[in-house]
Design brief:
mainly alpha, rod-shaped, cell membrane, ion transport, ATP_synth_b/b'su_bac/chlpt
C-alpha cells in the first residue's frame, strides 16, 4: 500500500504556498504591467489613428484652400485681362480721336492754304488782266499786245 509521507505533504503545501505567493506577488503585478502596457499601446494606436485622421482632414482643407486660391488667381487674371482690354480700348479710342482731330486740323489748314493760294492766284490774274487792259489801252497793235502779254506771263512763272 501506499504510504504518504509528511514530506510529500509539506512539499505539496510548500508548492501551493509558493504558487499562491508567485501568483499574488509576481504574476499579478506582471499581468497588470502587461495590461497597462497593452492599454498604452492601444492608446498610442488610437492617438496615431486620430492624428492620421486629423492630418487627412487638414490635407483636404489645404486642397480646398489651394483650389480656392487657384480659382481666385484665375478670377484675378480674368479681371486683369478685362481691365487691360478696357484700358487698351480706351487708349485706342483716345488715339483715334486724336488722329481724327489731327486729320481735321490738317484738312482745315490745307483748305486754308488752298483758299490762300486761290486768293493769291485770283489776285495775280486780276493784276495780269489789269496790266493787259492797260497795255491794250496803250498799244495800238493787237499782235504786239498779245506778244507783250505772253512775255509777261512767262516772266511771272
Amino acid at each position: 500500500m501506499l504510504r504518504i509521507d509528511y514530506n510529500i505533504l509539506f512539499t505539496i503545501v510548500n508548492l501551493l504556498i509558493l504558487f499562491w505567493a508567485l501568483r499574488r506577488f509576481l504574476f499579478k503585478p506582471v499581468r497588470e504591467i502587461m495590461e497597462k502596457r497593452a492599454d498604452d499601446i492601444r492608446n498610442s494606436f488610437e492617438e496615431a489613428d486620430q492624428d492620421r485622421r486629423e492630418a487627412e482632414e487638414y490635407k483636404e482643407q489645404c486642397r480646398k484652400q489651394l483650389g480656392n486660391i487657384d480659382e481666385a488667381k484665375k478670377q484675378a487674371e480674368e479681371e486683369a485681362r478685362r481691365d487691360a482690354a478696357k484700358e487698351y480700348n480706351r487708349i485706342l479710342a483716345d488715339a483715334r480721336k486724336e488722329a481724327a482731330r489731327i486729320i481735321q486740323e490738317s484738312k482745315e489748314r490745307a483748305a486754308a492754304a488752298a483758299d490762300e493760294e486761290r486768293r493769291q492766284a485770283e489776285s495775280d490774274i486780276v493784276k495780269m488782266i489789269k496790266s493787259a487792259a492797260a497795255k491794250i489801252a496803250e498799244s495800238e497793235d493787237d499782235s504786239k499786245m498779245y506778244d507783250d502779254f505772253l512775255r509777261e506771263v512767262n516772266q511771272e512763272k
